[in-house]
Amino acid sequence: MSEPTYSTDRIRNVAVVGHSDTGKTTLVSALLFDSHTVNRFAKVDDGHTITDFDEDEIERKITINTALAHFEHREVKVNLIDTPGYSIFTTEATQGLRVSDTALLMVSAVGGIEVQTEKMWKKAAEYELPVLFAINLMDRDRASFERTLEALQKKMGREVTPVQLPIGEESSFTGVVDLITGTAWTWSGDESAEVQQGEVPGDMADAVAAAREALMEMVAEQDEELMEAYLEAGELDDETFRKGLAAAIRNRALFPVFAMAAGKNMGVQPLMDALVDLVPAPDWRPVAAKTPEGEDLELPVNADEPAAAYVFKTFSDPYAGRITLLRLFTGSLKSDTTVYNPVRDANERLGGLAVMQGKELHQVAELAPGDIGAVPKLKETRTGDTLCDPSRKVIIPAVPIPEPAISFALEPRSKGDEDKLSAALVRIKDEDPTITVGRDPQTKEMLISGAGQLHVEVVVGRLKRRYKVDVILHPPKVPYRETITASAEVTTRHKKQTGGAGQFAECKIRMEPLPRGSGYEFVDKIFGGAISQGYRPAVDKGIQEAAEKGVLAGYPLADFRVTLLDGKEHAVDSSEMAFKIAGRKAFKECAARCKPTLLEPIMKVDVFTPEEFMGDVMGDLNSRRGRVQGMDSEDGTTIIHALVPLAEMLTYSPTLRSITGGRADYHMEFSHYDEVPKQLQEKIIAASQKGEDEEED
């Protein structure tokens, strides 16, 4: 039996975002239970929640993947997008925001504003989304609604306004007072969802009256007609108040704050009403899009428009295969239709349409504009792509994929699993575009890169569980290089006589250093026929082959010029091979005389940290041989710009997380190569020679 199709005005799309351990998944479970969508209030610790169904999520008791669920309340379908709270999974959470119409930002009444609180607040602002704040964990020790609200208003502005006041807190938290209706909601605390509505407690009457008046003033300020009505009557009637509040929220002029203890199912039912009454339907604004040629468009949200959908996630199901999650921004979609993917320039045939309830696919005959659904077994489409009607080719801008923050070398534990590993990594990259996989051309290592160590460890666990490939992780090798700092000339002869034809070649070369980043240059300055024209490229080839192994520690030698000055050949015994060998010998002898040195990659590092950690972060960068180039300040965040050797950055991610409590982030990209300090060169050379000796043994 297929699920019903809801019209656009009866759909709400809400991304549940926030820092880890603020109760996002628990709130989703409570909403599903209270709406009678499920008959059990599942907890994260039980391992049976609807939206945390991945084995890693169950084992680690954290959300790793964005997941979907939905419930119906007062004939309105509310799509819930449960997102991860760890900063290394920020892109997953951002994809959830990309397809929502409102952000429900969970904040701990104990911990207050945390790193992901700020990140999701800024991401919601980028997409111009309305934001509802839910101050959760009100039943915990040291919980404080007032302290948390004050911090939110200081950080995000006075527009962050309570629409509820809590009745008690910590172990005394028993309910909330709704400032819109002036009604008190109280619970027994036994998770049964049984709620009592009644009068405001007497000792809260003055506080409630003052807070309700402040809220009404905030609403009236948003519109001249509302302000006139408010000044004339001294208040707004209930219907005008509610409509004005919804408009202020939609326009980001007001950000309502709710109080709850979702783990005890307290404060959840009033939120259900708010998600219906205060959250805009998907047609609240047109859709920003582009033509394949880059021209900006605005698409009205209408069932009569050609369809346009954005793909925000793909994942593999052991039974259904690849599943594509999408938000239909405009038009309608039906089963067994053909759509166009302008990003891949490919047509896709939609089989059965479905909506997701956690990991379960529920078939639907049609998706209305604004709804969120799933399509199994698409061949070409990937995360971030657009699917549209072939009659109107448009592209909906995708969430940008950030550069990876950390890399590891990866090898299969069993040597026969190389092909199996490669195939599995391709499928994992399809699911998670923030993972990058490749082979370092210099070190020849297979590298896997992600947003953090936990991110990579999750992928390793998935490889083992889902694809039966056990792998070993190592810190990646630093791609050092060698260069020369002086000039020299040598004449080298290669002569070998065997029973048959012999080998003879002689060449004279000069080596000299070039500016950093110049690479390799070969100059032929032989006049006449000292070496035949056909043999000279062989000298060049021999030098390039030898340069790949360097002369100090086995690293490629770069930034030098070789000039071929003279040479000799034999009419019978000379050959290309002989001159290639002579070129290799000449390189090794000459490079050793040119005062060779080691170079290391220097990275341009930008660290984004709250101001209070600036001193500790800079001290740590200095200890890593970093050179701070400057600083910028933005909304209470300090951005430190530094140049740091790559060798010192391999362990930076966990250290930065430890120093700042997970509230800082960084971006790193290659800048240039620079000389390694002499005392460190000796250690690197010794380690390289030791590795060669072990390989020979």
Report on this structure.
Helix 6 packs antiparallel against helix 7 and helix 12 (536-547) crosses helix 13. This protein is an alpha+beta fold. The model has no long low-confidence stretch (mean pLDDT 90). The longest helix is centred in the last third of the chain and has 19 residues, at 678-696. The chain has 16 helices and 36 strands. The protein folds into five domains: 9-202 and 254-282, P-loop containing nucleotide triphosphate hydrolases (Rossmann fold); 287-388, Elongation Factor Tu (Ef-tu), domain 3 (Beta Barrel), CATH 2.40.30.10; 406-474, Alpha-Beta Plaits (2-Layer Sandwich); 482-594, Ribosomal Protein S5, domain 2; 598-679, Alpha-Beta Plaits (2-Layer Sandwich). The radius of gyration is 32 Å and the shape is elongated. It has a seven-stranded mixed sheet with strand order 2-3-1-4-5-11-6, sandwiched between helices.
Give a quick precis of the structure:
By secondary structure, the protein is of the alpha+beta class.
